[in-house]
Each structure stands twice: as C-alpha cells, then as structure tokens.
Amino acid sequence: xxxxxxxxxxxxxxxxxxxxxxxxxxxxxxxxxxxxxxxxxxxxxxxxxxxxxxxxxxxxxxxxxxxxxxxxxxxxxxxxxxxxxxxxxxxxxxxxxxxxxxxxxxxxxxxxxxxxxxxxxxxxxxxxxxxxxxxxxxxxxxxxxxxxxxxxxxxxxxxxxxxxxxxxxxxxxxxxxxxxxxxxxxxxxxxxxxxxxxxxxxxxxxxxxxxxxxxxxxxxxxxxxxxxxxxxxxxxxxxxxxxxxxxxxxxxxxxxxxxxxxxxxxxxxxxxxxxxxxxxxxxxxxxxxxxxxxxxxxxxxxxxxxxxxxxxxxxxxxxxxxxxxxxxxxxxxxxxxxxxxxxxxxxxxxxxxxxxxxxxxxxxxxxxxxxxxxxxxxxxxxxxx
Length: 385
Description:
Number of domains: 2
Strand content: 15-25%
Strand order of the largest sheet: 7-8-6-5-4-3-2-1-9
Shape: globular
Order of helices and strands: EHEHEHEHHEHEHHEEHEEEHEHEHHEEHH
Number of strands: 15
Number of helices: 15
Radius of gyration: 21 Å
CATH architecture of the largest domain: Alpha-Beta Horseshoe
Structural class: alpha/beta
Distance between the termini: 32 Å
Helix content: 40-55%
CATH topology of the largest domain: pyruvate-formate lyase- activating enzyme
C-alpha cells in the first residue's frame, strides 16, 4: 500500500442516514432508513477490503448524517470490525456524533459500554425559534437533556456544536446560546458560522429572497463575542471554530484529537459514501450514493469516486490554509523542513503586508492570524498564492 509513516492515523466512518435533512446541510445523507442494514454489511466489507494498512490509529470518528439512528448493537459491530481489521491504540479517542432527537439515556449508556469515550452533540442552538429556522427536529430543552444524559451515562468528554450568523439572531440571543452551553459544562464547543452552501434548500430560499442573510458586520461582531465569552469561561480557541476546556495542567487537553489530524497532514482513512481519505500526498474519496456504494462493493470494487495527488505547490497552499486555521498558526520550521525551502524568504513581502494590517503575527517560529485576521481567512490564505 504505502510506506509506513510515523504519524498516528485516524479513521472516519460516514453514516449517511438522517431522520430528516437539515435545509442548510450539504454533507451527504439520505432519509431512506430501509437501506441501513445493507449499508452496514457493506461498510464492514469495505473495511475488510482496505485491510492491513501500516498505520497505528489513535482516533476513530463516527460521523454523518446522524450515526445515532443506529442502535448500539450495530455501532458495536462496526467497532468490533475496526478493532479486528486495524491496529487501534489502547488509548484511542473514539467519537460518535448524535442528535438530541435520536438519542435516549439507555442508548448513551450502551455507546459508553462499547468503548466510545467522546460524544459530539449536534445542538446548533438552545433557542426554539432559531432551531425552527434551521429545520432541526429537537427543542432547546431536548438539547440540554441530551447533554445531561451523556454526562449521566459516564461521558467525560462531551462536545457540542452551535451555529451563529443566522437571520434574525441578535447578539443577545447568541449570548443566550453561549451562556446555556457553558452552564452545561461540555469539554468542547464548536461554533460554526452559518454558510449558504450551493444546492441546499436554504441557499435556494436565500436566492428567492425568503429571508435576509445577517449583515457581515454583525457576523464579525458575533465571532468576536464568541471568542471573548468562551475565553472568559475557561474555553480556549485552538482553531477558528473550535474551543476546548483547559485541563488541570493548563493545557486544552480536550481538543478533538481527530479533527486536528485534518489540519496537520496526518494520514486518515474514510469509510462509507462520500468519505475522504488522505495519505500524503494522495487524497481520494468515495461516491456520494448509498446504492452505488453498495453495488460497487458487492462487485468487489472499492467505491472510489476520484483521487488526486497533491503537487508540491498544492501541498504548500494547503499547509498555509490549514495552518492559519489553527490558533497556533504555521510552524515555520516544520514548513521549511517539509518543503525544503524558506517560508520567510518566499512569503516575506506578503507577511510584512499582513503584519502591517494587523492580520498576522510572526513570533517564536510561528506565523498565525490575529483575531481580526481570522475573519478574513480565505482572502488572506489566497494572498499567499
């Protein structure tokens, strides 16, 4: 397959089922539950086909879709297969995403007993009006309950997702969400800005003028409010959208180990329809269709949609873009070593220009965005081209 790499690797499993599609979401999922069992059988077969890879995996992430549409017994089969086929470290971070409306206390206890040690709860908001706009099936109360149940089930690593920049949202209503989140004391909080992905029902409604998107200035204000509020409450921003509680040692020990792989060129394998895999410099991804996925694997063919080999230039661009997403920024030495070049020499002018605008700071061998710079990540990253 590939030469053995020293970096610890990750496994991502995509469960492509939802009870109902959210109008803003462009992740691949379907609502036809009748395909769940054939899909599961096929998924285990895909793992077998990939088989013996020369990696040690220290993260396994079950995402979606809505993985919690599967009972613990099915998730157990998935985990058993992963442990049988791959070399997974004893202290691996094993995460499952759940939705408040598709979970109950017993199911959470069962997940915990299977060795899942991190849970990510798709909360999005505690405000019922906001949830309604987002097309979510749960209420704010359901979201609070799910977090309390997870804690009761024994989870000591709970993450929750929130969305801001929603039409009709105010600074006051966003602070209500943040307050409520902090009161529930999760270890990790992700705050994503609402984006209008092409082809989604929400984007079509925006184009038809059914609602007015939030003004950019207010979105920026909410972003800054988020950082200040969460920092003041013991959550440290380690990536543009991600905040982790500080551990007893003063380090954000509850950072998502799996997500960090995506930002650091670590190898990861993706299973299920639309899942991506990356083994530097190759990236490949599966087809976005459950039926096609099942058909291909039944024919003994891997369900690959496409594959790309990153050129040195593409890798450099990715290293800059992904590096700038992180609070710590780009490690200049690592960059120089990886690309056998001098980051400061090549990009000296760009860096100086961005430092002058107070969008970027370079210190102690690191190049990172300032808080203001984080608002303009895309345009700043493209200025390095």
